[in-house]
Amino acid sequence: MTNPTYDTSAPVLVTGATGYVAGWLVKRLLEEGFTVHAAVRNPSNTEKLKYLNALADQSPGQLQYFQSDLLTLGSYAEAMQGCTVVFHTASPFTIAVDNPQKDLIEPAQLGTRNVLEQANQTESVKRVVVTSSCAAIYGDSADLEMVPGDLFTEADWNTTSSLTHQPYSYSKTLAEQEAWKIAKTQDRWNLVTINPSLVLGPGINPFATSESFSLIKQLGDGTMKMGVPNYQMGVVDVRDVAEAHLAAGFTPNAQGRHITSGYNTNFPQMAEILRAHFGEAYPFPKSVLPKALIWLVGPLLDSSMTRKIIARNVGVPFGVDNSKSIQKLGLTYRPLATSLTDMFQQLIDYDVVTT
């Protein structure tokens, strides 16, 4: 996409600034010359902040840290002061949790409420960009049977997830619904949401703990060498998600939700792409596991892989429509092979995966 000339006279806020998507967003903002107010849990944790600090050292923009906590009302007041655009990226991405209400729902929903209520009280704010998810659009691939057409669109909402079934997706749905509810109570700032599918690609922090890194690591470290399920999904490069946020923040007529997904793919295809690039040095899976076998043993190997999830997703057709992000935000998506190979190469370079 062609970059517009940005008005960098006012600072912008990025919540959860040490996160996977947030890191690339901060990088782009600094490159464009913005002063970035980075909201983090512990501004004195120099080890965790060293990757962002390195970006700031190489960029024309400025980076300022502010201590904030998703669950503490008013904790974003200082960080938001003077900002015209707020990027709310902070939210947990983890699948296996002991207490979904405490570990997923509360940080996502209450965190969104705290950030957006602060926007209501901060006169300088004109736009809020919330990092939502395709998980707020659908819960399972089987949900496609309930929507018109053969692709999920921004008009669709996830109505099938709950605390006991796909709780992560449920948390993202509740958080985005909370955002739209708050946005409709006022008319000073407008809300734009970015709804990525599974985010892949290298991290600003090569040791990031996002579920995405765990997945790609397992494709190459032997965990899945016996085979993978035909689990279909959307995939998007983290660098493209950052561009989507940038466009959502500063494209004057941007509005509503934006599915941000480069490709509809599946585990077998992803494994094949990695093998084509890296060869046989790593035990990438070569076979597709039968659905009946996954249904039988999946829940025994992974408690988050329930039989309901298997039934409603493995081998079930899936697809999302990304045309709005292309037309309204000007996105061009990197090839799937680029995202996968860049990410796996980073895991090799930092000895996260070894032969």
TrEMBL record:
Pfam families: Epimerase. It comes from Acaryochloris marina (strain MBIC 11017). Residues 12-254 form the NAD-dependent epimerase/dehydratase domain. GO terms for molecular function: oxidoreductase activity, acting on the CH-OH group of donors, NAD or NADP as acceptor. Gene3D superfamilies: NAD(P)-binding Rossmann-like Domain. This is NAD dependent epimerase/dehydratase family. Keywords: Oxidoreductase.
